[in-house]
Design goal:
The protein has 336 residues and is an alpha/beta fold. It contains 13 helices and 12 strands. It has 2 domains: 138 residues, NAD(P)-binding Rossmann-like Domain (Rossmann fold, 3-Layer(aba) Sandwich); 182 residues, NAD(P)-binding Rossmann-like Domain (Rossmann fold). The strands form 2 sheets. It has a 7-stranded parallel β-sheet, sandwiched between helices. Helix 2 runs parallel beside helix 13 and helix 5 crosses helix 7. 2-oxo-3-(phosphonooxy)propanoic acid (HPV) binds next to loops. It holds the Pfam family 2-Hacid_dh_C.
């Protein structure tokens, strides 16, 4: 480790502009030895001599997956600081074996998604979004006959698929609601940890059979593609709401369309397959389906905090201290 390590930033220019203002650049220059340009989109474009001396790589959205050849060309690389969410598709799993530490701001990025999910759960419970749509098309006066539902104390069951970084944050937020029961489906989760988070770990079909609101928080992997297909949707109780902030490909869109078009299920979707849905897509026409443009994870005006994560990580690296947000080999998301 050197006092002012050679640092390279790999992310798309728009992400860089959102995260790094003058103050952040001054702090970066004080901690690092920087080349020119400071930021590149991907490592393919980097001069081999520059890559060969890079010790710390700061990445974010827009950096393509790092290949084994690029790693071989970067023998001095010691740390990857990912100022964004998951590193699963960014770095190869054998990075730990090469002695490279990886840290991610996924925990910070989980907060806005969990907040979106909590809002969606409450709105789903009240059926606010479909009823607002009905009200827009056919204004109605005050009525107490709408089938809205209260979450607290009435035994409502919420299903969470994925005891992931975001799934765990959602469970934290749900504690304030005092809901009926919260069920978790995750083949990798530890039942004791799920219980400590106020929920019960059950196989997916059992969660589906009981969840009046089902929220997806698993990553999209070959094993989770269409994890929620027609057979799984059919298990959900009548009137249930599916919330998807994870990845569109986890759900079979055609099967979801059929269930929502029949009015049996509602959906709140921040992610879709395809994404974005083309204009005129039938899901967009349904009053009981709400689609937002993949914004749940947006930190909005606080996006700059992601660069602070990277700069704090860089300062810790220089000081020889543990990296905040380190992905450890034992609990690595790379192994999930
Ligand atoms: N809408 C948005 O703006 C954002 C969406 N996301 C998405 O949210 C999802 C969750 O992200 P993170 O919490 O960071 O994930 P994560 O990387 O922490 O999730 C890993 C966990 O998923 C669980 N898992 C794996 N296979 C599973 C399966 N078959 N069923 C249930 N659980 C399974 C495992 O327990 C593993 O530990 C991802 O799909 C991610 O792409 C993430 C950030 C922003
Ligand atoms: O959904 C997104 O694109 C995000 O905001 C974060 O995704 P990631 O966890 O970085 O794959």
């Amino acid at each position: 480790m050197t006092m002012r390590p050679r640092v390279l930033l790999a992310m798309d220019p728009a992400t860089f502009a959102l995260q790094f203002g003058p103050e952040e650049l001054t702090r970066l220059a004080g901690l690092a030895t920087l080349g020119d340009p400071i930021v590149v989109s991907g490592l393919d474009a980097v001069d081999p001599a520059r890559l060969a001396e890079t010790e710390v790589l700061i990445t974010s959205w827009g950096c393509p997956p790092i290949t084994a050849a690029q790693l071989n060309a970067a023998p001095r690389l010691r740390t990857v600081l990912h100022a964004a969410g998951s590193v699963r598709s960014l770095v190869p799993p054998d990075l730990h074996d090469r002695g490279v530490q990886v840290a991610t701001a996924a925990t910070m990025n989980a907060v806005p998604v969990a907040e979106y999910t909590l809002a969606a759960i409450i709105l789903a419970g009240k059926r606010v979004l479909p009823l607002a749509q009905v009200g827009r098309e056919q204004p109605v006066g005050w009525q107490n006959s709408f089938a809205t539902r209260t979450l607290s104390n009435l035994g409502r069951t919420i299903g969470i698929v994925g005891f992931s970084t975001i799934g765990r944050k959602v469970l934290d937020l749900l504690r304030v609601l005092d809901t009926g029961s919260v069920l978790v489906a995750d083949p990798f989760a530890d039942p004791d940890l799920v219980r400590a988070a106020g929920a019960e770990l059950l196989p997916l079909p059992e969660v589906l059979g009981r969840a009046e609101i089902l929220s997806l928080h698993a990553p999209l992997l070959p094993s989770t593609h269409h994890l929620i297909g027609g057979a799984e949707l059919a298990l959900l109780p009548d009137g249930a709401t599916l919330i998807n902030t994870a990845r569109g490909g986890i759900v079979d869109s055609a099967a979801l369309l059929a269930e929502c078009a029949s009015g049996r299920l509602d959906a709140i979707l921040d992610v879709t397959d395809p994404e974005p849905l083309p204009a005129g897509h039938p899901l967009l026409a349904l009053p009981n389906v709400t689609v937002t443009p993949h914004l749940a994870g947006s930190l909005g005006s606080e996006t700059r905090r992601l660069s602070h994560f990277a700069l704090d990580g860089l300062a810790a690296y220089v000081a020889g201290e543990p990296l905040p947000g380190a992905v450890t080999p034992e609990a690595s998301e790379l192994s999930a």
